[in-house]
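This part of the workshop introduces the protein records we will be handling. The structure tokens are whole numbers drawn from a learned vocabulary of backbone shapes. The record below serves as our worked example for the rest of this section.

===
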Amino acid sequence: MLFALFVGAFFFPLVYYLALYFQVVQGDSAVQAGLKLLPYLISVVIASIASGALITAFGSYNPVILVSTAVLTAGMALIATFWVDTPLSKWFGYQVVAGLGTGVCFQAGIIVVQNVLPQQLIPQATACVQFFQSLGGAVFVAVAQTAFQNGIIDNVARGAPGVDARVLIDSGASQIRQVLADMGHEDAVGAVLRAYALGLRNTFCISAAAAACTFLVSWGFRWKRIGGAGEKR
């Protein structure tokens, strides 16, 4: 269940704050930000569908999960490098890498419980997997929100000391530039965007750390060949 907890811990904050990155830092509308999330989301779907075929081909879920969590961790670490001027090639490609790892992770918890537990316990275990994914998301979205706001407040104070960071936080993602203009701080746009990028980097680092935890936890899965050909701990 720790694995499921960390899956929720990296996924839900990532999707929320990645959309915020596109809206605030890159100046996109909500619709444009949603479209820019498609490389990640489509990769998740493709990897989720392909995970069954990969596990069948290997005859075991362990190698597939270990490789996928390693790819996921690398992708999340790359996303944590996003900056004000990150080009399309990077924000698109890094999302694909992270998405390919994510798709397998969403299936991994259910696949494991279906193969290691008695038949009568599978429904309860599946419900527990889904519960812990939701719990991880709920807890770590709140943690990421705190890290995000603290990052903005600290970095705005350093880069644009005349700007009230709390007004920016309360203004909404699409209103930052207009709020700065209304406050008479148009010249501080660059510093504020950098502060937002650093605040968002805090959230991406949290997702990357949670992804790394999925990799570590996956080493504790029981090694078992699909179809009962053999098993080892």
